[in-house]
Amino acid sequence: MKPPTVVLDREVTFTTREVGGRTIFVAHHEATGKFFQFGSEEYRVAILLDGFRGVPEIYQTLQREGMNWSTEDLAKFIAHLVKSNIAILKNGDPTAHPSDETETAILQDLAEIESTCNQSRWVSEKSINQNAHELNPSDPKRGDPHTSDPNRVEASSLPLAPPPSGPPPARPNQFTSLLRLLSLLISQRIPLFRGERFATVLNRRIGRAFDPIGVFVWCILVGSGLCVVYGHREAFASELRLVFDPGLWPVLVLIWAISKVIHEAGHAVAAKHHGVRVGGVGLMFFFLAPLAYVDVTDAWKLKNRIHRVQIALGGVYFELATASIAAWMWWSLPDGYLKHLAAQFFLVAGPATLLVNANPLLRLDGYYVVSDLTEIPNLRMHGRRQLGALMMRIFFGAPAGRTLLNGWRAAFATAHAASSVAFQVVWMGGLIIGVAMWAEGLGILLALAALLLWFVVPVTTWIWKVWMMESSGRFWMNHYRWRLLYLGSVLVILFQQLGTVSSPFDRRVPVVIRFQDEQVARSPSDAFVETLFCHRGQHVEKGTLLIRLSDPDLTKRRDAKADDVEISELQAIQFRRQGELSKSATFQENANSLRRQLAELDAQIDQLTITAQRSGYIVGSQVETLEGRFVSAGEELFRVSDPREKELLAAIPEEDIGAFQDSISKEITARVRLRGGKTISAKPTSVRPRAYRTLLHPALAATVGGPLAVEPSPTDSNEVRLANPHLESITKLDPVTSSEVRAGQLGTMTIRDNRPLLARISDAVVRDFRRFSRVTQ
Q1: Residue 37: helix, strand or coil by DSSP?
Q2: Is the per-residue pLDDT at 519 higher than 50?
Q3: What residue ranges in 524-669 does DSSP mark as E strands?
Q4: Is the pLDDT reported for residue 709 higher than 80?
Q5: Could you tell me which residues come within 8 angstroms of residue 757 by beta carbon, excluding any fewer than 6 positions away?
Q6: Among positive and negative, which fits the CA dihedral 460, 461, 466, 472?
């Protein structure tokens, strides 16, 4: 390759800015609309790229000026400038990949100088991503939550290692094309129109919302809206549960679209209000979900960070205002569909936008606000690079690289990076699992693409860089490779142990206290209470007469049925005497059928007299008012129970049967924590071999505050049944414990988990997503 000569693009302009007491240089590429941050040394190198000086001459100039840059540093820096279109190759191979062949050519051109100067091939871990920091490399809209590109794997997200001893290998074009295709599969961006005129018109009408008076009015509006919501929090909580109703999804999509238009208008108006040019407006599809964006990249030109914060929060600012208006509309509207729509608009434009858009751990509005307030441009890049360097130093003993941050900013960036990585692992992992389970075939394809882009490629690249650090010694091994193999072995053993060793955590089974063998006296039919022989709190013995009911209609039907039996029998006798045996047999058969019906009526009449089936106390809130009342069939009259004889009913989900049976076989005493703070001990007993969908106890239903999800019964819309089958186990309590607890008291029984830890985690994740999918279907 012909020795390259590099010249800085004429479209690049520099401005200075004070950040954290240090002078930085912000480069703006007018043609692409991108911004880059340079340190003083990087700015000096960029200025030397005049198209006349060769790279060796630039290197010698830097050495004379005392800049301790290695040939690797200079080569990577210039190659990245060319790749980012900040600099242009005046000669050399025009087909070369700027990040590979260009860097190789520069290294070869500097090899002779390097040997002459006897410089180390690796002086520090400095690179373009530490020194020429691109403030907004891919997103057309700075600070908008709907334009952050989750597919993009930043070079700063993993720790950099020194390059190998030979020239870096070229990246295969087929693999690069595959990654771009996968990225396009996950995220697509569609520009719609230019937003400058749109923002200008809106700024004339509502731009004063960002003036001090407008901010004061906004505070009053949002504060009053919060008071309305807080005063009716239970009603809004019930509205929140309706978000998962599939029948309301078309309306929610419309509400979401309106709120996002308001959100983007907020960013555009805030930018125009502070004199920033508004670029394109468009639509982006992320995991097939439509998201909006507006280009306000030029906000980086503003030196006033409060103005930049206003632009970043412009969307949330407008959405919270409209959410407060929706809360007031909900309060003033009469009950009906419009009132419900107002509540749903509040939930979408209020809590939802705060939870997502204002989250500083995602590259959304909240992240840019924190970056501006702390004066740490590229907070994510700085933090992840420092976190990566810290990990490299801890696990591999690699030398610490130079950082552009100092003081508390360095520690803050590292802490932010650790928090954001942990959050995004959970968030992205849940997103991948959810899409794979929800969208089935296409969802699995999208999940695989995301897994490859967000995990496999970065981890593989990082391992390769660590493996190629420094030259290898005997047996092609060095310190870093030994460390890498050791850590890999530790991880394999750790996962093997997590997959086989029992989980140290416990399982919790819902339980409820109830009386043992409790007699529930119910009315067998619609009847009057004729005589009551007991009172509430009275102790009765088994067989004691408790209540006598009267049902005149039932008695009348019984007497009429007895007459029909007698008539049928007389007719059978008459036809038999007349020799008509067939007719006699017919009437005799009819008499037998009527006699069976009569026996059933006699049994119902006998049930009108209720006696005690066990010894115990009369329990009931309306016992004294029963005499002379009319009661319906099935209505509960009172109960007979003994407070010294209670039992523990455990409702066991199917996935916990194995662990519960294991506790029974080992005769382990379980700890039961009841609501109210009371804790008792109980030994689990045998499980009944049948799974029930019927509600085992009324207090367990989620509709009355219980722990078990229920659904309408398919046979009776007024009844509910368990959403998932449960088995039951009954444990009798001793008299002392029975006297200390109350019937109907809910709690949880803690049993040991017999699953491996990894199985427990995977089961919990899959179970939660299945429940969510069931709710949303």
Answers
A1: strand
A2: yes
A3: 527-532, 539-540, 545-550, 609-611, 616-619, 630-631, 636-641, 646-653
A4: yes
A5: 498, 499, 501, 502, 503, 504, 505
A6: positive
Q: Give the number of other Cβ atoms within 10 Å of residue 558's Cβ.
A: 18
Q: Give the count of beta carbons closer than 10 Å to the beta carbon of residue 754.
A: 17
Find, among 652, 658, 650, 654, the residue nearest to 502 by Cα.
658
Distance (Å, whole) CA 713 – CA 8: 74
Which two tokens mark 285?
């599809």
Q: What is the pLDDT of residue 99?
A: 44
Distances (CA, A) of 138 to 32, 178, 288, 300, 335: 10, 19, 20, 14, 47
Look-up: residue for tokens 């009798």?
A: 732
Both tokens of 464, joined, read 């390769």
Quick: pLDDT tens for 26-50: 787 777 777 777 777 888 888 888 8
pLDDT tens track for 533-589: 998 889 999 999 999 999 888 888 888 989 888 898 888 888 888 888 888 888 889
> Do 415 and 170 contact (CB within 8 A), yes or no?
no
Q: For the beta carbon of residue 191, count every other beta carbon within 10 angstroms.
A: 14
Under DSSP, the state recorded for 735 is H
pLDDT, average across residues 44-65: 81
Task: Please indicate, yes or no, whether the overall pTM of this predicted structure exceeds 0.85.
Answer: no
CB 721 within 8 Å of CB 695: yes
Most confident of 3-12, 61-70, 169-178, 454-463: 454-463
What is the 3-state secondary structure of 127-193? Answer: CHHHHEEECCCCCCCCCCCCCCCCCCCCHHHCCCCCCCCCCCCCCCHHHHHHHHHHHHHHEEEEEEE
Tokens, residue 367: 């992240």
